[in-house]
Amino acid sequence: MAYITINRKHFENNIDVVKRHLESIEPSREIEIAAVLKDNAYGHGLEIMAELASSYGIKTAFVKNYDEALRIKDKFDCITFFYDDMREKFSHIYPSIHHLSDIDRFEKSLGNLSDLGVELKVNVGMNRNGITPSDLESVIEKIMKNNMRLIGVFAHNGYGDGEDAEFYAEIERFEDIKGRVVKLSNTLGFPMPRFHTLNSSSTFRVKTCSDSLVRIGIALYGYLACDIQSASNLKPVLKLYANKVSSRILKKGDRVGYDGVSQMNDEVIVSTYDIGYGDGLCRLNGDRKLFLPNGNEIIAKNSMDCFSSYGELDEICVIDDANYVAGIFDTIPHEVLVRLSPFIKRIVV
Ligand SMILES: *Cc1c(COP(=O)(O)O)cnc(C)c1O
Questions:
Q1: What are the CA-CA distances from residue 22 to residues 162, 175, 218, 264, 312 (Å)?
Q2: How do residues 265-276 score in pLDDT, each as one tens digit?
Q3: Is 39 helix (H, G, I), strand (E, B) or coil?
């Protein structure tokens, strides 16, 4: 049976790499590292990664939806979900507000919103989601009117992966937002919320940081979608292994797989392994070549549940470097990892 290994040492190393970077840019102040565990912890397995993160001292997690938050609710002090409604109040689970009307929706499902902790998302230039900065005062007033707790104010810098000057413009806009929140906190008398705007690449890109915490996703799993020197010691956490289903000897001219796009040049032994595009390995149609870590080629076209390769090893590593696979399919490591089926067994090593 195919399986995934999760390397605990590499995961802890990656937290340490982020920690060392933060200590180097802000030596006098501790910035909290929060784990982004959305989308089944980027395909690594939500509960497993939540356990590893919390046992290594991470106190705050971010996930996509309420159900993910519930599944890890005993592991963290604070859990924020980005895009969903709340169905039952928990004092340490917070929905995100992207629009004034979200508050009315929460009220419909929860009734009285008193004491509900929320995080307020502000659009600082990516123009994807979050409230418009000019609405800041009115949204916060509505939060206070409903006696909700404003736990955090955050933005998402969408320019961390490149050299675009917009990266710094977005940081400036968030600084302005913070200043206005501080003022409101003084005039309206609510406790200062936490502030956060940096994901993995943005965190490694900045030379100073005045936020309370950083939201680290892909770097915890050992990757970035760009090259930054301070992140060069990140180590991939996940490896995907497949097991042999069967082997056969093929003659010169024999063809393999759907539509027979791959034809044998010689007599060869070909084996089939139990990972296919249904498990998250992208489909090859014959236009591009994908090699396994041991140098063997995955023979196109691979199927939904299996692929063929040369040789007859009983077990074979399919992915040990999501960056390599991402490069072949013109995507980023996030997408390669997040596609991995939750049904594949995960083993912590
Ligand atoms: C996914 C996500 C992150 C983490 O991004 P990485 O690039 O994986 O570190 C942070 N913040 C928000 C809002 C996200 O959606």
A1: 20, 18, 16, 53, 47
A2: 999 999 999 999
A3: helix
What are the beta bridge partners of residue 166?
none
Catalytic center residues:
38, 258
| Residue 18 CB less than 6 A away from ligand 1 | no
300 vs 286: CA distance, rounded Å: 5
In this structure, the residue with its CA closest to atom 13 of ligand 1 is 156
**Which residues are CB-contacts of 286 (< 8 A; sequence separation ≥ 6)?**
261, 262, 300, 301
Give the pLDDT of residue 160: 85
Task: Tell me: pLDDT of 161 over 90.
Answer: no
Q: What HEC string does 62-127 produce?
A: EECCHHHHHHCCCCCCEEEECCCCCCCCCCCEEEEECCHHHHHHHHHHHCCCCCCEEEEEECCCCC
Tokens found for residue 108: 């419909």
Which atom of ligand 1 lies closest to the CA of 216? 9
Give the position of tokens 């991402």: 326
Calpha distance 307→273 (Å, rounded) = 5
| φ and ψ of 61, to 5 deg | -130, 150
SS3 percent helix, strand, coil of the chain, rounded to 5, is: 35, 25, 40
- pTM here? 0.96
337 CB within 6 A, ligand 1: no
The amino acid sitting at 288 is R
Q: Which two tokens stand for residue 22?
A: 């933060």
Q: Among all chains, which residue has been given the structure tokens 């005993």? A: 74
Longest dimension (CA), the chain: 81
Q: 60 has which bridge partners?
A: 78
Mutate to test the pocket of ligand 1, among 124, 199, 201, 323 (most ligand atoms within 8 A of CB): 199
Confidence tier at 314 by pLDDT (50, 70, 90): very high
Beta carbon of 346 within 6 Å of any ligand 1 atom: no
Enter the DSSP assignment of 342: T
- Band of the pLDDT at 319, cuts 50, 70, 90? very high
